[in-house]
Design a protein that fits this description.
By secondary structure, this protein is of the alpha+beta class. Helix content is 40%, strand content 11%. The chain contains 2 helices and 2 strands.
Amino acid sequence: MIDQFIEMTRAVIDEDGFEGYLPTLVLPEQNEVMVLDDVPADIDSERAALDWAGAVGGQEQDYRAPRRAI
């Protein structure tokens, strides 16, 4: 599941660039992929994504939330 997710993520970023990429969360134990959308323009989208990933993923399970490297 993780390898497929990485390939899909790379394809989206290659095609549309990172600016259009929606924060995505992979929950391997649940075999689930979730997308965060509709983040208000006045909110820091990276901070919102990290908060969301932590709230959904929690401390009890393993999760992946890709983000842009600086």
